[in-house]
């Protein structure tokens, strides 16, 4: 970084996604940036983080930090983005935002570079949105299939990791695991709530609405109309917008599982045209950001433990539905902190400067 | 038990399901049996187990143990049932079998008492089959909906507990949890395979094809044609047989999760007739073996940790699909060792003697 290239700002540099973002920037063979600024809340200001061999001091969020910035990536809560992304844009930066604040705004493109890279150019508010991590975990695979076969319907069930709820989700899962492990809990798995209470882990202190260790929790996000969760509606509405299929039929059920990082989804996808497993395998093999892991007889299918830390979307268990025409069932795993958040945001930022 | 009632035999009395079966028999307010015999492999013979206040000695499996037996419940591997259930039947017992050996035999009824109790009477081979635990976990709920609205299509994703793989599955999950808990595994969750190997937990020694702690595994059962697992085909074929809908359209994806006991399923069900959430709630409320837990705003939905050890099927997250007509999305949890195995088997045995 020599001062001649564009200036990148990372807002939320000290959070769970922000720290993965720093890893991604450090791991790139080269970057286009002349300068990188790390920004966080006043509480984290002054921290020193090494970026591409240079020790940078985290600056407190303030309007002036955006002066001279070309691209500002935001990994902060919705309400912080809602306030600050427009300030960054007003100061001349393109804001790439990973919150839910702007995703469904018709004047804000929602971008997955493999699917709709061109959309970055049409940004009347100076803001580009990064999709929700659950939606993102399947988009590279679904976008590739949609181009070939025409997607019509989606039924999705998720297996979402604790880190989707940020650092507090990760900390809580570890604390719960420590409270239940090493105990003789019998064939039933004991009373998990009792074990957590005995360890001082009150449910009210958890970012999750039920115990996560030795459990699955069929809820993520906030309460929306008619029993739907915000997370489930995001999967539906964001998939429609990214893929450009306004009438895509979607039913999603979002479930949290005791995995630290990497979201998985079971996908039932109906297409306009017939699709075989061999055709789907060929489509995935031709998509650089998708890795096919699909040979159950050899124990080969994607699992979070095997794909975490990787950039691609991993796809396996591809089957032609036995009773539904033009339909595939498959399973995807994607690191929700990388492609699901930091990586896709960074890829959008790169796309913005490449398109200048 | 006074010697005047019918004789019940429990084959596989010392296994994970067998021990739950003993709990169920001990927990009944009254039982119709004049005598109960506990049977297991020669290795477990001689063990003493208390049943309804009486200490019984486990007998080794042999043809003679079935003499005088009215109902013999089998909770043993497929190949043991395949050999021994016909022997029990030849000696005059009605064999109620919880293995996969006979479920799809057209001369063997496959029974869930709430759905098709009358089927117990038509048993030309003297054998009645108990369904697979994953299928069973949703049958009471689906059977009730089918009677009212006419089931046509099912898309199912499972969250299956370790105990579905028996005691070795339970032991493995506990051992894996102990190996990963209390470590600083970071935002990625560390390298689970490495942690297990360091603890001496080789993958080849596991009943699961991948790590289960801090992971989900999209595989259960054996490899069948075209990428399907035996477990997924059981969900399809057994649902059709139990519900009496030979052309029911089914796609299932079966996934193991790090829960000790209680299977969960995300269900997308399409009906012949329109169905609202209020109508579905009314149907569930009228079904004694279904408990409705459905108020997300109050944090009320079923989770394995809250329902394990219970007899009913717990249903929540009931939503009318936004984009599919006549369609409900919902989430069910059922204790796979109780209703999913021991309880339903025992209910069939009771049905057999009640129908005499």
TrEMBL record, chains A, B:
Tree of life domain: Bacteria
InterPro entries, per the entry: Asp_semialdehyde_DH (IPR012080), Asp_semialdehyde_DH_beta (IPR005986), NAD(P)-bd_dom_sf (IPR036291), Semialdehyde_DH_NAD-bd (IPR000534), Semialdhyde_DH_dimer_dom (IPR012280)
Pfam families from the UniProt entry: Semialdhyde_dh, Semialdhyde_dhC
Domain Semialdehyde dehydrogenase NAD-binding: 7-123
Function: Catalyzes the NADPH-dependent formation of L-aspartate-semialdehyde (L-ASA) by the reductive dephosphorylation of L-aspartyl-4-phosphate.
Known partners and oligomeric status: Homodimer.
NCBIfam families: asd_B, PRK14874.1
Family: Belongs to the aspartate-semialdehyde dehydrogenase family.
Protein name: Aspartate-semialdehyde dehydrogenase
The organism of origin for this protein: Goodfellowiella coeruleoviolacea
């Amino acid at each position: 970084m020599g001062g001649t290239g564009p200036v990148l700002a990372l807002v939320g540099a000290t959070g769970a996604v922000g720290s993965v973002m720093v890893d991604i920037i450090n791991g790139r063979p080269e970057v286009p940036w002349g300068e990188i600024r790390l920004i966080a809340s006043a509480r984290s200001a002054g921290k020193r983080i090494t970026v591409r061999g240079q020790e940078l001091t985290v600056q407190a969020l303030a309007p002036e930090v955006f002066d001279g910035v070309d691209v500002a990536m935001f990994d902060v809560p919705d309400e912080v983005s809602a306030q600050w992304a427009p300030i960054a844009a007003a100061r001349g930066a393109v804001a790439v935002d990973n919150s839910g604040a702007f995703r469904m705004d018709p004047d804000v493109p929602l971008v997955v570079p493999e699917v709709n890279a061109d959309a970055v150019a049409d940004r009347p508010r100076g803001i580009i949105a990064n999709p929700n991590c659950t939606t993102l975990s399947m988009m590279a695979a679904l976008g590739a299939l949609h181009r070939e076969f025409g997607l019509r319907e989606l039924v999705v069930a998720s297996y979402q990791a604790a880190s989707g709820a940020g650092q507090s989700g990760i900390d809580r899962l570890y604390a719960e695991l420590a409270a239940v492990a090493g105990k003789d809990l019998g064939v039933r798995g004991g009373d998990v709530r009792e074990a957590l209470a005995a360890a001082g882990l009150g449910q009210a202190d958890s970012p999750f609405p039920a115990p996560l260790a030795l459990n699955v929790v069929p809820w993520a996000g906030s309460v929306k109309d008619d029993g739907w969760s915000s997370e489930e509606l995001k999967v539906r509405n964001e998939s429609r917008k990214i893929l450009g299929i306004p009438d895509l039929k979607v039913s999603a059920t979002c479930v949290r599982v005791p995995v630290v990082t990497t979201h998985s989804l079971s996908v039932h996808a109906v297409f306009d045209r017939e699709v075989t497993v061999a055709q789907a395998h060929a489509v995935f093999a031709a998509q650089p950001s998708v890795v096919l892991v699909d040979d159950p007889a050899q124990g080969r299918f994607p699992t979070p433990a095997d794909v975490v830390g990787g950039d691609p979307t991993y796809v396996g268990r591809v089957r032609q539905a036995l009773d539904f025409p033009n339909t595939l069932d498959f399973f995807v795993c994607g690191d929700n902190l990388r492609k699901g958040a930091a990586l896709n945001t960074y890829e959008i930022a790169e796309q913005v400067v490449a398109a200048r």
